[in-house]
Specification:
heterodimer; A: mainly beta; B: about 110 residues; mainly beta; six-stranded mixed β-sheet
């Protein structure tokens, strides 16, 4: 089944404790992206990647890191999480850019205490 | 700056009736595309329909159709024969620009009444 998977789905952590949210797609998509969703602010892009080893900042990259060592994986790293990073996070992928539909993972609900 | 405006924070519709969700976009690009996504209360993001700026005809996907008026920069989603399962948040999204970022509206919350 073609899908985007994210893990964990739910995470409660404390300020400053490094964490990684994994994202994997099995559709051989080139484009992958991370978003956060906050009430009243909609979805905002954190980082995106056009292909392996090619990443770029989105609208709200501060406090986040990403890597794209393999085509299928695009982990999101929070080196020192803070409470303002409490949010719902989505990973998405698409075949390319432009007309290609982005397929979303199920979301990761993160709470930073 | 590119922007998507969804002017209806919340909408109600009776089951089996049609409903239109408004979306206006602001882009100076010649080539762009508009998507609609649905987010039910369970949280997942579901692709519904896509309209390219050069598409001659309005896009349709089952009960979903897009009323695309290029001159007015509007791309309204029409849901025909509403079902209870259509109750969800709906987002209009623009992929205009060379910066490879999607621009999201703030969404419209649709409630379908039995």
């Amino acid at each position: 089944e073609a899908q985007v998977t994210q893990n964990p789905r739910y995470l409660i952590t404390v300020t400053g404790k490094k964490l990684t949210v994994t994202c994997s797609q099995n559709m051989n998509h080139e484009y992958m992206s991370w978003y956060r969703q906050d009430p009243g602010l909609g979805l905002r892009q954190i980082y995106y990647s056009m292909n392996v080893e090619v990443t770029d900042k989105g609208d709200v990259p501060e406090g986040y890191k990403v890597s794209r060592k393999e085509k299928r994986n695009f982990p999101l790293i929070l080196e020192s999480p803070s409470p303002n990073q409490t949010s719902l996070y989505f990973c998405a992928s698409s075949l390319g850019w432009g007309t290609d539909t982005q397929y979303f993972g199920p979301g990761t609900r993160l709470t930073v205490l | 700056a590119q922007k998507i405006t969804q002017t209806q924070p919340g909408m109600f519709v009776q089951e089996k009736e049609a409903v239109t969700l408004d979306c206006t976009y602001d882009t100076s690009d010649q080539s762009y595309g508009l998507f609609w996504y649905k987010q039910p209360s369970s949280g997942e993001m579901i692709f519904l329909i896509y309209q390219g700026s050069y598409d001659e005809q309005n896009a349709t996907e089952g009960r979903y159709s897009l009323n695309f008026q290029k001159a007015r920069k509007s791309a309204n989603l029409v849901i025909s024969a509403s079902q209870l399962g259509d109750s969800a948040m709906y987002f209009c999204v623009d992929n205009a620009g060379n910066n490879r970022k999607l621009i999201w509206g703030l969404g419209t919350s649709l409630a379908v009444n039995p």
